[in-house]
Design goal:
By secondary structure, the protein is an alpha+beta fold. It is built from eight helices and 20 strands. Strand 2 and strand 3 form a beta hairpin. Helix 2 crosses helix 7. The radius of gyration is 21 Å and the shape is globular.
Length: 377
């Protein structure tokens, strides 16, 4: 796909003015890095980083039966999400395979008292999720609306982010819990301020109208400069989420895995009222996982310097025991790391004799529990 065929975010001109290296990500022309990936990564761990996430897919679900529709369409219990709160959940196929992992925000109720939800899907799956929700809405008094063009999404992440954002907003950030969102203003323009993120640090995701994106970005850049805030691309976002042990769709999650295979069975709420898509298959997957644990997602830390990549085989005693799903050098640990699905017998932290087949050489790796990195609260 040529650059002219790609979708561009409202901040495209800003990225280019900053000299960003751009890349095609899920049909969007997105900043991969602005300078050093390591510097961007470390800025988020020690100060703050600024991300353009406007490629994510926002879908609004409204109407008297919006909660019932989402309870049927998704595996979580969305009916119990309070106004101003958010929930991590998944949408699955009838066979239990994961179509996408999602964050669902419950916004302020509509004028008629109906609940309003915003479903945020991964960029690569936004159309798939929209189509599935639209199809599953049949028979419910609810509307599914594609709002991808209605929002720009800017994230400010890192230990300095609360102080930076506080200087630009009227919102009560101290009272804003993790996985909650509230309407407010940022740099004088309306925004939904959510305390969510994908870096393992404290931080905020700001949903605003595309025409306001540049103003918000520039205001955050200026306010954050004394705290070391710098713009950050998708490359360091990936190493940050990898250190934090957070799954990425297409790597740790896919249609060939159920939430139970991915070690995320906790997101499936069998106790909620009514049927939901995939219930039967997921109940069978839960029972299977109890009897014979599937391969388990673990962390691997290299003893050497060679970097494992997705798809590389994990080996022990000359046998293939698993597969790497994500791998990269870890700026925080100073060594290459990976997430991998391995046979349950080899999943214990400290299991000896485990390696990764890197171009025919079995490089030694230490098995560790996820995450690799946990921030000090």
């Amino acid at each position: 796909m040529s650059s002219s065929d790609l979708r561009h975010t409202a901040l495209d001109a800003v990225h280019r003015s900053l000299g960003a290296t751009m890349t095609d990500f899920a049909g969007w022309d997105m900043p991969l890095r602005y300078g050093s990936e390591r510097d961007e990564h470390n800025a988020v761990r020690t100060g703050a980083g600024l991300f353009d996430l406007s490629h994510m897919g926002e879908i609004t679900v409204t109407g008297p039966q919006a909660a019932e529709l989402l309870n049927f369409a998704l595996v979580g219990n969305i009916a119990t999400v309070g106004a101003g709160r958010a929930r991590y959940t998944m949408i699955c196929q009838e066979d239990g395979g994961i179509l996408d992992d999602l964050i669902v925000y419950r916004l302020a109720d509509a004028e008629d008292g109906s609940p309003v939800f915003m479903v945020v899907a991964n960029a690569s799956n936004a159309q798939v999720v929209l189509d599935a929700l639209t199809e599953r809405a049949a028979g419910f008094d609810a509307e599914v609306r594609d709002d991808r063009d209605a929002y720009a999404l800017i994230a400010v992440q890192g230990p300095a982010s609360p102080g930076i954002l506080a200087s630009l907003t009227d919102a009560d950030l101290d009272g804003l819990k993790y996985y909650a969102g509230l309407p407010g203003t940022v740099a004088g323009v309306p925004a939904l301020i959510a305390r969510t993120g994908y870096t393992g640090e404290d931080g905020f995701e700001l949903f605003t109208a595309p025409e306001h994106a540049e103003k918000v970005w520039l205001a955050l850049t200026e306010a954050g400069a004394p705290a070391g805030l710098i713009p950050c691309g998708l490359s360091c976002r990936d190493t940050l989420r990898l250190e934090a042990g957070m799954p990425l769709y297409g790597h740790e999650l896919s249609t060939s895995l159920t939430p139970f295979d991915a070690g995320l069975g906790r997101v499936v709420k069998f106790e909620k009222e009514g049927d939901f898509v995939g219930r039967e298959a997921l109940a069978a997957a839960a029972a299977r996982a109890e009897q014979k644990p599937p391969r388990k997602l673990v962390g691997l830390i290299a003893e050497g310097r060679r970097v494992p990549r997705a798809g590389y085989s994990v080996v022990a005693g000359g046998e293939v025991i698993g597969e790497v799903t994500s791998g990269a050098p870890s700026p925080t640990l100073g060594r290459p790391i990976a997430m991998a699905y391995v046979d349950a017998a080899y999943a214990g932290a400290g299991t000896a004799g485990v390696g990764v087949d890197i171009r025919g050489t079995h490089e030694p790796y230490e098995v560790v529990a996820l995450p690799f990195y946990k921030r000090q609260k």
